[in-house]
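hi!! sorry for the late reply, been swamped w classes. u asked for the two structures so here they r. pasted raw, havent cleaned anything up. first the sequence of the first protein and right below it the C-alpha cells
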Amino acid sequence: MNNNTKQHGILQAILELPQKVIRYVSSAAVRIFSPPDDNYPETGVQPFEGEPAKKKD
C-alpha cells in the first residue's frame, strides 16, 4: 500500500463520518415523529367492577 492510497482512505473516512452522523440523527428524528407502529387494541373506557372505597370520617 503506497502513501497515496493511505491518504485516499483517510480522506474517504473523513468525508463519510459526517454523512453517518447525519443519517444516524435523522433516522432517530424520523422514528420519533412518525405515526406509532404498535398494534395494541383500542380498549376505550372500562367499567368499574369493584367495590367502592369506604368513606373516611
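now the second protein. again sequence first, C-alpha cells right under
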Amino acid sequence: MPSCTHDPADTRSRASYRSLLRNREFTGLYVSFTLTVAAGTLSGFALGTLVSRQTRSPFLTAVSMYGATFATVLGALTLMSVADGKRPRRTLLALQGLSLAGVTAQAVPGLPLTARFALLLLLGFFQSLATGTRMGLLTEAVPASAYVAARSLMNVTSGATAVLGFAAGAALLRRTGPEQVFALSAALTALGLAVVAAGVRERSIRPARRPGLRQTLRANRELFAHPGRRVLLVNLWVPGGLVVGCEALFLPYSPGHAGTLLAAGSAGMLLGDLTMGRLLTAERRRRCVLALRLLLALPCLLFALHPPLPVLTVAVFVSATGFAATLPLQEQLLALTPEGVRGQVQGVESAGRMTWQGIGAAAAGGLAQYAGPGTAITVLAALSATVTVSAALVARRRAPAAA
C-alpha cells in the first residue's frame, strides 16, 4: 500500500487557509459555496424525508435525495461552455437566482410529488452550470499553487456544513414540516446570491467567444479524446458514485438513525479533505489515491453483517475519508487542462461525479426494492472496489506507453 506520510519540508510552500481567506474574491466564492451547500443539504434531507413518508419506497427516497444529479449531465453536455464566458460573475448571479426560484417553489405546501421531482431536475441543471462557473472563477481568483488548498478548504467546509445540515434538518423535522425546512433553504440560497453580488468581481481577461452548444461539444470532445483524462474521470466518477448510492440507503436501512450515519459520513469526508489538503505533498497525494479509493468502499461491506449502530457509524466515518482521493485526482485533471476551458472541464467533472452519484442512488434503490437495503449497500461497495482496482490496472498498463 502506498505511503501517505507527511513531508514537513513541503508545508511552508503551500498556501494556508488564512492567506486564502485574506483574498476577498476567494472569500466571496467560498462563503457563497458554503451557503449553497447548506441550502442543498437541508432541502435534500427534507425532500427525502417527505418522499419516504408519502411513498415508503426506498427507490423513490434515494432518487429524491440524489436525483438532481441526473440533470447535471444535461448541463455538462449542452451549455457548460457558459462557465468560461466573458462575464462569469453575471452568469453565476443569474444561475443562483434561478436556483432560488426553484427552492422557493419546493416550499409550497401540498405541492404534488411530480412537480417536486420536476423542480429537482431543473435545479440540478442550473447547479451544474453554476458549479462550472464558480470553479472557473476560482482558478482565476487564486494562483495555481493555492488551488489544492482552496479546493481542500471548500471541501472541508462542505463536509462540516453537511454535518450541521443533516443534524439541523433532523432536529427541525421533529418540530416542523418539510415545507418550513425548504423555506430555510431558500433563505440560505438568497443569502448566497447576495454574497456573490457583493464579494465577486467581474472578469475582463477572458477571450470574447460565444458560449453555446457547439462550443460545449467541441471542448467535451477534446476532453474525452485524451486517454489520461478519461482514466482520471473514471476514478473521479464511478467508485465514489457507487458509495454515495450506499449512503442513499441510510434512510431505508435505519430511518431513526439515518441522520447519525449521514453526519458520520460528512465528518469523515471533512477529516480526509483536511488531511489531504494541508498535510501531504503533491507526490504523496498522488500515491494515496488507490489506498483511499479502496478505503472508500471496503468498510461499507460491514452492512452485510448488520452490526450495531456504533460499529456502522465508525465504518461510515472511516469510509468517507476515502473521498479525499478526489483532491489529487482533480489536481491532475487541472494540470492536463488548457486554461481557456478550465471552467467547463471542472464543471463537466463535477457534473459527471454528481450524475454517477445519482446513478449509484438509483441502482441502490432499485436493488433494495428486492434484496433489502443492507444487501444493496454491500453489493455497491463491492462494485466500487472492483472498479477502483480495474482502473488502477489500466492506468498501470498505460504508464510505460505514456512515458
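hope this helps!! also noticed smth abt the second:
The longest helix spans residues 24-55.
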